[in-house]
Every structure is written in C-alpha cells, then in structure tokens.
Design a protein that fits this description.
By secondary structure, this protein is mostly beta strands. It has one domain. The chain contains 3 helices and 14 strands. An 8-stranded antiparallel barrel has the order 1-4-5-8-9-10-11-14. A hairpin with an 8-residue loop joins strand 8 and strand 9. The longest helix is centred in the first third of the chain and has 29 residues.
Length: 256
Amino acid sequence: MTIAAANRPEKSKSHRLWIVLLTLVIGSFNGSTLLAQNNGRCFFLCTPELKFEPTVTVGNLFRPAKVAKLEAGVPTETSEPGREATFEMIFAVDIPTEIPRVGLTFEAIWAPFEGTEENVFTGATASQLGVSKIQDNPVELEFELNLHWLESEQTRGWIGSHFDIVDQYSPSARPNDRGLYTHKLNFELDTSISVFNWLPQRNWLRNLELEFSLDYLATGIPKTGDVFHGEEVFLRGESPWSLSILVVIPLAPLRP
C-alpha cells in the first residue's frame, strides 16, 4: 500500500470536518442574525463577525529544544534551533454570547510560505523533484473559548484583552501520533490595541486593531526523549511558547 493510499481515510476525515465547520459557521450567521433582530437581542449566540488577520508568529520563544543526532543509538552533534518567524493568514469568526465577558472563536490558519524536504503523501523528496523545497502549508483549525477580562469599553475603545482556552487541530508533531492531524490544548493571552481609535466615528480605519498574542501550547509537541526516524532524539522538549503579532481586519460586517 502506498503512503498516499494509507492516508486517504485521514483526508476524508479532514474533509468531513471542513463540511461540519462550514455548516456551523453558515448556520451561526443565519440563525444568530435572525435572533439579534428580535428586539435587538440574541439567544445565547449573537451575530458573528468575520475577520482577516495577517500574522507573524515567533516560535521557540523561551528555552528552545535541544536535539541530537543518533549514531548506533548514541546521541551526537547536539543542536538548539533558534527562534523561528512564520507568516500566517488567519480567517476568524468571532461569535459573541449573551454570557457577560464570554465569546467563541473559530479560526482557519494557513502559512503560505512554509516548506519541507519530503511530501508526506507521496514520499517524493525536494531533490527528486528538482526544487529547493516542497510546499508544506496545511490548514490548521482552532476552536476557542474567549474570556474577556478587559473589555474595550473600559478603556474608551483603545485596548481590550482576553484569555483563551483553545482546541487546536493541526499536523501531528510527536513520534507516537496515530493521525496526520491531532487535537492539542493551547492557552492564549490576546491583547488588542485600536491604533486608529482617534479617527472620526464613521471612518473605517477605526475598526482595525493591532493585536499581540502570547501562546502556550500545552500538549502535542515533541517532549524530552522523543525519537524521530531513529535518527534524532530530543534531549530537551520543544518550547511551548510563541508570540504572534497580527493586524485584525473586519470583513463582515465592515463596520462592527
């Protein structure tokens, strides 16, 4: 059986997940909009907002991993990967709720410029194909519970901040993972600044935000002792910390 054939169940599972996600998003827009039109209130879920968020994420923020090559089972040639900056494109659906200071967010995250040496589906390598790298930019999904500890109304619209509990569904990263994608527990502290809040009320630029997100990925990353392909071992686990800097651009409604 080829690698591509072996992965077909995972691909179909991913497709089913996308269908469910799109159904939930469309249903939320239709249902909650009607509810919001009922005396200006909503029933638990309120009118969603669609946002586009170009992002730069810096990984290995604190105490990066230490990796060693294995020769006859003996670690040699240790290395410590430095901080890594990745450009990502995020489409986010924010859904306010009737519960004070509580919201929900669904995100689809895509890193358009990432690459790898080997195609996970076909086994072909970059050198075999005559390219410097094979594009490796799968879509990641995040499902977030937002707890707003500082609302923008408290700072006259200038600053808002929330703590997020996140289910991240992204490519597997540990040697014992049994699927191409795994669920991971992530914690985020997001703080947004309305840099154009000083503009007149009807100016669209007032809706743009500069946001800083400090992330702690608690599960699903390489740990101390993990061995990959029998060729390298993690002497120290991968850093769970990352920092993202993003611009939040509202798409629907354009004037939230």
